[in-house]
Amino acid sequence: MNIPFLDSWLKRQGSGSRGGLDDPVRASAMAELFAECELLRVRIGRMGLELDDTPASLAALDQLPPRWRDDPDELPWIGNDAGLYLGTVIVRTVPGAEWHVWPAGQPVVRLASGREIGVVEAGLDWAVHGAPELSRVYAEAAEA
Asked: Are residues 127 and 66 in contact, defined by beta-carbon separation less than 8 angstroms?
């Protein structure tokens, strides 16, 4: 998914031609931006679950009834936030994992092995279909 505000942010920050986050300050700012996931945190908070950026919170998200599917306008935004949240948990808890942004503005998580995970796509699939489970994607990333 292309994230318009991310394109603008990267242009202002002068991202490199590969779309990487070479500057540690810029990488930290991007990670914090991705970690906000405000819509997801608010909606899930109303369901009684606080997202604490841990793998256990991904498993708890997987167990919630998918009430967000009742609002087709909000569904893609919840999925996008779920993907960014998944990426945030991976980056914060899997050694060597880091955010990478492709030139087209697509954020992915790059593992120490070099494998890249399209977390936004995984979040969208989870929000719409319930699969793959976020905790499963995390487990696969942690094993890589």
From this structure: yes
